[in-house]
Amino acid sequence: MKIDGPALLVRIYIGESDHHDGRPLYEAIVQLLRQRGLAGATVLRGVEGFGRNARVHTTRILHLSSDLPILIEVVDEEARIRAVLPELDGMVGEGLITLERVEVIAYRSPDKEVGS
């Protein structure tokens, strides 16, 4: 797969304790994105944050949370992103999904030499 030029970045903000069909929601989302053939996804675990209910989730020892913020980022061509958005919307009960236009400078596979 080759991506360069205009693309979309999807950011999905959820909680670590969110689940879908009996497993962590972030795992279910990554599996869906992989099954749909998207270019890739990265899951990031936050150290602190709050959402709509304004409850702080943190790793600080005095206020340790078992529901830390999770951010999933995906970059791909606009048509591919928009095709999977309805499924993502159905999976994310509480959370936030954002879209941002980006320009891909390089997306290289390890089996390809640079410049080829």
Task: Explain what the structure shows.
The protein is 22% helix and 36% strand. With 116 residues, it is of the alpha+beta class. It has one domain (5-104): Alpha-Beta Plaits. The strands form 3 sheets. Strands 4-7-1-8 form a 4-stranded antiparallel beta sheet, with helices on one face. It is globular and about 40 Å long.
Please state the structural category.
alpha+beta
Q: What's the mean pLDDT score? A: 85
> In CATH, what is the class?
Alpha Beta
**Number of domain modules:** 1
Shape: globular
Instruction: State the major sheet.
Output: 4 strands, antiparallel
CATH architecture: 2-Layer Sandwich
Count of alpha and pi helical runs:
2
Low-confidence stretches: none
CATH topology: Alpha-Beta Plaits
Q: Rounded to an integer, what's the Rg over CA atoms?
A: 16 Å
Percent strand: 35-45%
Q: How many strands appear in the DSSP assignment?
A: 8
Helix content: 10-25%
Would you list the SSEs in sequence order as H and E?
EEEHEEEEHE
Q: What strand order characterises the main sheet?
A: 4-7-1-8
Terminus-to-terminus distance? 13 Å
